Amino acid sequence: MAIIIWHRRDLRIDDHPALARGVELGKEIIGVFTFDPQILRGGMTGTAQVSFMLACLRELQQNYRQLGSDLWLFMGDAVEVLSQLAQELPASVLLFNQDVEPYALKRDRTVTEALQNLGIKVESFLDISLINPRAIATQLGDPYRVFTPFWRNWSSLPKPQPYARPVKILGLANQPDLPGRIGLPSLADLGFAGHDLELPIAGEAAAQQLLQDFCQPLRLLRYQEQRNFPAIAGTSGLSPHLRFGTVGIRRVWAEAIAIQPLIQSNEAQESLQTWQQELAWREFYQHVLLYFPELEQRAYRPQMQRFVWDQDQDRFRAWCAGKTGFPIVDAAMRQLNQTGWMHNRCRMIVASFLTKDLLLNWQWGEKYFMQNLVDGDLAANNGGWQWSASSGMDPKPLRIFNPAAQAKKFDPQAEYIRQYLPEIAKLRDVELISGNIHPQKCRALGYPQPIVSHEQQQKVFKQRYAEAKL
Q1: 55, 108, 323, 383: which has the highest count of C-beta atoms within 10 A?
Q2: Is 361 a catalytic residue?
Q3: Residue 270 falls in the annotated catalytic set
Q4: Catalytic-residue membership of 281
Q5: Whether residue 154 lies in the annotated active site
Q6: Catalytic position from the list 6, 362, 364, 387
Q7: pLDDT in tens, 152-192
Q8: Is 11 helix (H, G, I), strand (E, B) or coil?
């Protein structure tokens, strides 16, 4: 009787709770991944994510084989695939790591019930976060709605140690020829077009290397100083790997904490704490999505459920293409379109611009990000967009970013702007930062004039914001 390890967003061998449990049980193990048509065709998954995922699966399958087992791939509904597979093997246990997204929770309950009805034991494990989102609450036992008290509680709790990487996995002695099993598909097989995106290197080995590089004291301990400057490689680059689970969150925490003895200044201590807070923000958004699944569909604040958004598709297309005439905004959107990733400071800038300058619904931007970001994650993406749109769980919700002020502060030599806007790269710093470029220069260089007035649009936003509050 075999054990099935059901992989979803945990495409690794190291620090893997479900796999560690399977090895502990000492039975034959087979890894399984199902391509879910509902997720692939649901409109919130794009080429960047699928391409990255396929490369992760290729390496995961190789890792399974090197350790003595295999990763089997299937296409179809998880309930049907796993029910049939469990009977064909036959299997005695299904092990998987938990998720917090509404669709995943519903799917996992259905799978669990179906396999238990077949007499198969099902166990699930905390993997997506350091602290179980169900185990952290206010003193009244309520879920948190504000980050700061969540952080105080979260940071005070002990963090788990990583699970050991297995040195051997007991594979199946006899591998049946199962119906529905497929080889690793191509993008075209899954309904996605080819691309020329400059995606990060996928897979567990790349994730481990990024983690080691980032946790060098000279990088991690300068995180607070460098993380907001998009022209500097001041962040970890781990977000796609956390999204697809090619690195375990316990391993990330342990590697970061290991340099604590090297800290010799307040600035270094602040950098480590800031990095810890970023991990806590990730878990805060998971926490609130779990307890408020309606956030997937609507704004948290009733005031912003009543807000009147414009419906200007031309302005939205200009934003998507990086042709708004605001250099810092356009550079960020072109970074996304060319690489499948965007610096976090720039995500806030372009989100504020879409909602506060173009007066367009944050859900348009949320969907575009999910379709184009390699690290597109429902909880983090939704939380970030609702924060930027003044519709989320923020005790001081009315925030409006001035694009020029943001560029002056975080791209003072316009290095980032020049990297992604080559047509205007030869202009002076002050022109690139402010966006005040003479119309004749814009025409000659093929760069658009600003499509809105920031000063005018923020007045309109504030007026509508006040009206929606009534």
Answers
A1: 383
A2: no
A3: no
A4: yes
A5: no
A6: 362
A7: 999 999 999 999 999 999 999 877 777 789 999 999 999 99
A8: coil
